[in-house]
UniProtKB/TrEMBL annotation:
InterPro entries the UniProt entry points to: DUF6596, RNA_pol_sigma-70_dom, RNA_pol_sigma70_r2, RNA_pol_sigma70_r4_t2, RNA_pol_sigma_r2, RNA_pol_sigma_r3/r4-like, TPR-like_helical_dom_sf, WH-like_DNA-bd_sf
Domain RNA polymerase sigma factor 70 region 4 type: 110-159
DUF6596 domain residues: 177-277
Family: Belongs to the sigma-70 factor family. ECF subfamily.
Protein name in the entry: Sigma-70 family RNA polymerase sigma factor
Sequence intervals crossing the membrane: none
Keyword Transcription regulation set for record: yes
Keyword Transcription regulation: yes
GO molecular function, one term: sigma factor activity
Lineage: Bacteria, Bacillati, Actinomycetota, Actinomycetes, Micrococcales
Pfam family, one: DUF6596
Keywords attached to this entry: Sigma factor, Transcription, Transcription regulation
Domain RNA polymerase sigma-70 region: 17-78
Length: 407
């Protein structure tokens, strides 16, 4: 029975997206796809422990789910109407050149369609492709379960009402649409990497694991897309540091103070390999590829003192040309502090105050720079500003301890 349960859990991780995507393509209805897939897995829970795990679990689940969907259509006496709806949602045209015509890829682009709000895209992607329950999504994003349920329901309804086609975008639309998908996946990852709200666990491995799994899937389907590879590398290199990022008593540990011996060397090696492959391609890197390269520099150093800060600054210089946001400028200033000194970096940080006054990391960075310059009172005030702004408890504990050390 234990083996059957493990097989079901493994099948859920590997096959959920494939089963749902196959059903969505056939029936053109996300509700039918989701419910039939869930029923198929429930049937597996009933039958596999007694009858044994089938030789091909994915095929068994897909066949069973198809039967469940057809049974539902017959019960509702709406089979003809549903097939018409399928023809509306599934526009059977050849896949654009250079893309892979895979049901899961179609489903990713449907869930992340720009006609949907960003919160709806995130929730729908996690439900339809990740297989997370509504309760799990609600817990991850500190939202009411009923609110998440309504968000997903409205998103499905909008897909049907707006006649959003279930297909890979055209060659002209693909670059923009891929960027939107990557934004969704990175948003999910960031919430797992460092939760934004107080009173909860600062790290949410289920979200980082799920975003990495979905990005791996996208990379497998679109292996030549540099930004997809870049985002996967970035996630892997950040995730590799997870076990070193929070102390036993729940305090955030900055990068320069982490125990690098506990970093995940397997993830680091995989991330570095992806970064090297993108460099060898000779193509101009995009935002995620540059961020991955920056993290590759950090994870290449066995000690913080071995970090090649000149390379980090050079990479940030490239990033600024593609993303001139104040947050990128703030992160560049942190690297400048290591290369040219905290006084030079502080001058840059001051110029960002107008746009980042409500951003906790801005005040925390300013506090650290003032601390290094020996300006204790100003540093204490800056720590206080950071602590007053919303954030998770691990960050607050670290900032509070740093401020108290200045007494």
């Amino acid at each position: 029975m234990t083996d059957a349960r493990e097989a079901i859990a493994q099948a859920h991780r590997k096959e959920w997206a494939r089963v749902v995507a196959s059903l969505a393509r056939r029936f053109g209805d996300l509700d039918i796809a989701e419910e039939a897939a869930a029923e198929a897995f429930a049937t597996a829970v009933e039958r596999w422990p007694a009858g044994g795990v089938p030789p091909n679990p994915g095929a068994w689940l897909t066949t069973t789910a198809n039967h469940k969907a057809l049974d539902r259509l017959r019960r509702e006496a709406k089979r003809e109407g549903k097939h018409k709806e399928a023809q509306m949602l599934y526009d059977d045209v050849p896949a654009p050149p250079g893309t892979i015509d895979d049901d899961r890829l179609r489903l990713i682009f449907t869930c992340c369609h720009p006609a949907l709000g960003m919160e709806a895209r995130v929730a729908l992607t996690l439900r339809m492709l990740g297989g997370l329950t509504v309760a799990e999504i609600a817990r991850a994003f500190l939202a009411q379960e009923s609110a998440i349920g309504r968000r997903i329901t409205r998103a499905k309804a909008k897909i049907a009402a707006a006649r959003i086609p279930y297909r890979v975008p055209t060659a002209e639309d693909l670059p923009v649409r891929v960027d939107g998908v990557l934004t969704v996946l990175f948003l999910v990852f960031n919430e797992g990497y460092l939760a934004t709200g107080p009173g909860t666990d600062p790290l949410r491995p289920r979200l980082t694991d799920e975003s990495i799994r979905l990005t791996r899937l996208l990379h497998a389907l679109m292996p030549s897309d540099g930004e997809v590879a870049g985002l996967l590398a970035l996630m892997l290199l950040i995730e590799a540091r997870r076990t070193a990022r929070v102390s036993a008593d729940g305090e955030l540990i900055p990068l320069d103070q982490q125990d690098r011996q506990v970093w995940n060397t397997t993830l680091i090696a995989e991330g570095h390999k992806l970064v090297r492959a993108r460099l060898a391609s000779g193509e101009a890197p995009g935002r995620y590829q540059i961020l991955a390269a920056i993290n590759a520099v950090h994870t290449s150093a066995r000690d913080e003192r071995d970090t090649d800060w000149s390379q980090v600054v050079a990479l940030y210089d490239q990033l600024v040309l593609r993303d001139s946001s104040p947050i990128v400028a703030l992160n560049r200033a942190v690297a400048i502090a290591e290369l040219d000194g905290p006084d030079v970096a502080l001058a840059t940080v001051r110029r960002l105050e107008g746009s980042l006054a409500g951003y906790r990391a801005f005040h925390a960075t300013r506090a650290e720079l003032l601390r290094r310059l020996g300006r204790k009172e100003e540093s204490r005030d800056a720590y206080g500003e950071a602590i007053r702004l919303p954030g998770n408890d691990a960050e607050t504990a670290h900032l509070t301890r740093r401020r108290e050390q200045l007494k």
